[in-house]
Write a structure and sequence with these properties.
CATH class: Alpha Beta
Number of strands: 7
CATH topology: Rossmann fold
Number of helices: 5
Strand order of the largest sheet: 3-2-1-4-5-7-6
Shape: globular
Radius of gyration: 15 Å
CATH architecture: 3-Layer(aba) Sandwich
Order of helices and strands: HEHEHEHEHEEE
Distance between the termini: 32 Å
Strand content: 25-35%
Structural class: alpha/beta
Number of domains: 1
Length: 178
């Protein structure tokens, strides 16, 4: 995996093989950031990374100037890896080792962009809990967006506050807004 743009553009990161992750592909990540780049000034953007895994998306936000970033994952190895790379690159990403659903039920952190990359084998009901908790607990700032990455075989268009989706290879990004 590599950082596509910003202060660490081109930096290659190699995550330990033992982590239980499926990093967002560079192609899909580049397409996603092309969309976000047209709507957000990253230096002023607060970002919440759910099911953060390797921290791939958090690192991209940090490289582009975001300083208010929280990465949440239940796996201790993932959290330690994000902390290690964040320190090496002087990013200052805050990490939280927690079940994402428990975190969403108790956090007061509000973000401009919330990105969730849960396991692709989640059921639609499990996916639905993410926007349900985000909107019920008012975790998005005004004009904020929730983006859920999932398999192209999963359809989230029937969920509340769904606005659109974009497909890149086997991955789909579903967007949800207030």
């Amino acid at each position: 995996m590599r950082i596509i743009s910003g202060t660490h553009k081109g930096k290659r990161l190699i995550a330990p093989k033992k982590l239980p992750v499926r990093p967002t592909t560079d192609m899909a990540k580049e397409a996603l950031f092309n969309i976000l780049n047209n709507n957000y000034y990253f230096e002023d953007t607060t970002f919440l990374d759910l099911f953060a895994g390797t921290g791939n998306i958090s690192f991209e936000f940090a490289s582009r100037g975001s300083t208010d970033i929280v990465a949440v994952d239940a796996d201790y190895g993932c959290i330690k890896y994000i902390e290690k790379i964040s320190k090496e690159l002087d990013f200052g990403i805050s990490t939280v080792k927690s079940d994402v659903f428990q975190f969403l039920g108790k956090t007061f952190f509000k973000a401009d962009i919330i990105f969730a990359d849960p396991p692709y084998d989640f059921t639609v009901e499990e996916f639905a809990k993410i926007p349900e908790l985000v909107f019920k607990n008012e975790l998005l700032n005004k004009n904020g967006v929730l983006i859920i990455e999932h398999s192209k075989h999963t359809d989230l268009s029937q969920l509340d506050r769904f606005t659109n989706e974009r497909r890149y290879g086997g991955s789909t990004f579903s967007f949800f807004e207030q």
